[in-house]
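Please predict the structure of the following assembly.
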Amino acid sequence: MPPLVVLLGLIVGWLALGLAGLIRPHHLGFVGRVLFPLGAVLAVGVALVGLRALRPDAVPTVLVLPLGLPDLPFHLRLDALSGFFLLLLGAATAGISTFAAGYFRAGEGTSPGLLCLQYHVFLASMALVVVANDAYLFMVAWETMALSSYFLVTTQHRIPEIRRAGFLYLLIAHIGAISILLCFGVLQGGSWQFTFDAMRGPQLSPGWASVAFLLALVGFGAKAGLMPMHVWLPEAHPAAPSPVSALMSGVMLKTAVYGLLRVTFDLLHVQHWWWGATALSLALFTGLFGAVFAAVQTDMKRLLAYSSIENIGIIFSAVGLAIIFRSFGLHLFAALALSAALIHCLNHALFKSLLFLATGSVLHATGQRNLGKLGGLIRHMPWVAALALVGTLAIAGLPPLNGFVSEWLLLQAFLFTPQIPHSFINMLIPLGAAALALTVALAGYVMVKFYGVIFLGQPREAALAHAHVSGWLERIGLGWLALGCVALGIFPQLVLTAVAPITRSLVSSAVNPGVNAWWIAPVAPDRASYSGLVLLVGIVGVVGATFVGVRRLYHGRVRRTAPWDCGYPWQTARMQDTAEGFGQPIRHIFVTAFRIDRELPSPTDPAPRYSIRIEDRIWHALYLPLASGVRRLADAIAVVQGGRLAIYLLYSFLTLIALLVFVL
Amino acid sequence: VNALAMARQAWELLVAIALAPIFMGWIAQCRAWLQNRKAPPLLQPWRTLRKLFWKDAALAERASPLFRSTPYVLFGTMVVAAAIIPSVALDLPFVWAADAIALVGVFATARQRWTSVPPSARSERGGR
């Protein structure tokens, strides 16, 4: 059977599961224990279809559905790029759906059955986005994705802040969609053919191509959370239930990367180096901004949302670098940067989903999202703590886990930039490499804070002693994603081989996956090589040998005792390093980036209160003036509406006269 | 990867591990000299290590398994880093496992583990 038909079957299966949720919408056992695990099974199928399209001998397959507009039926196409994003969608969703099966509880806003429908429509629309082969189906799937995720974000719609977050998300999603629609309008180039096959063919003039690229960058950037359109992420992610946050951050943001790659490399065939330079500078700003803001957050899901912004910055900077290399004809290096972008997409889908799901477990166990009221959970939730540790190490970009592989590839790509025959870029890019290195280092700092404050130390509240453990379905979901993080870190040559067909079709070159099965050497073995497996075996071997050696040499007398209190016996758990305290150095260094509202108690206050609110300057510099401008404009127009019948009749009369004058 | 190369690698590792405390001792000597003090002997860190192996270990009541494993992980990462860098011998089989960026990554792994431990080990009630 052709893979596209199988994929369509799986998508229809998802929709059917969603509709089945409406049969018994309030029966949690049926929806949770039957429908969501089935959805996870279908997700594995989607991943397998994607994997098949990534085989070196696979050819792009197309399918035309008898649906859609009379003269524009739905076109589907499955090539290596679509296949990779299907693999990402399937692999992450399999874990997230399994987790969700044990996660959703009754009485939290939307009924489970309706949630199941929205969830599976969301999945189906994301799968359709990556296989759509005409602008019409793409926009239909894109908007379905935005709407279904809006409903998922506002699951707890009785809370005003959540409705507000949902509105902001929907607004920015629509601004992005308008931009994408205009981009397709430019891309059809006057032929009025809206299939991607027609857009792929003729070359646009340089000016129009640049307009199309900028529209695509704005449109897809709004979905991905590129600055300055990132404001919805830190609002929407804390508002949504954790599996939905995981799906949005892990998978949905990647559809925007897919869209940008499709438009830039496949439809526009990259033309100008400054496209790449624009994307790269925006992306580096975004990455640094996300990392700095993540460092000062005190809400764990908000922290992860800012971390997503940072990772999107890393991915887009890789894309920008690939555009620069491609426009100078350096195909191998373009393939290197593009591989880094794609692999980081997959890695981020795994570890960010894992961390969002872990926050979900913590949230259910403790009812707390505030880092200041957590702590010491490693004792009460050992499973979640262990699996989240894998996620934090991976996202911090530490070898031998997967986050390191993609960041390593990207830094390698930066090291090859001196070969670009353009002095301005050669001057600019070392700055970019430094900014990237700073971003990655800050991400490591953020993750120490995230993990340390939640899972280590002492419980900051007495209620945390009653934190209950996670269910077995939740553990399987987390375990699947953690396994992916480890496997892709140890065997990076697998995923390097998988992305080779994509880079071959988009930049007509592919990096060398490795000298042999043990290490990767993407460009040349004497330039740079890396082996996660050898590092892991080395570290584990040394740790094991040391452990055995210490056991032999040491007498083994270990005393458990109260730690020394520095002579101050009245210590409480609240005296530990807090989330605010941990982020304070960063807040001081990057003070200009924030808008800080701080309330300091007076020294004589018998009940001192300290509070700090850290806000985004862009919100006040860009969004609020825009909103008030729109409001003023609306008020000015509203003057016309006097509310008196005679005036409205006068308007009609005047219009009639004007028309008569015009016609005669 | 032949036996000779592995032998070279093992030799380099042993030299690095043996020299590391002596290097610390040398730094302590230099510091003492700069402060107009009499310096401890060069092998003082090795003696300290031997002494610590005789003493009892005291562990905070509520220290987590992560805390207990930290010294092992730190030692493991540092040994691997020593194996990656060709210092005494050249053409080592381990060198291919990582380049300079990956070496920074290995140090970062150790650093990350190190930073997540101390705040509570220093103060407050109980270790992390």
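The interface with chain A takes residues 53-54, 56-62, 64-66, 69, 72-73, 75-77, 79-80, 83, 94, 96-99, 101-102, 105-106, 108-109, 111-112, 115-116, 119-121, 123-128 of chain B (CB under 8 Å). Chain B is about 65% helix and 5% strand.
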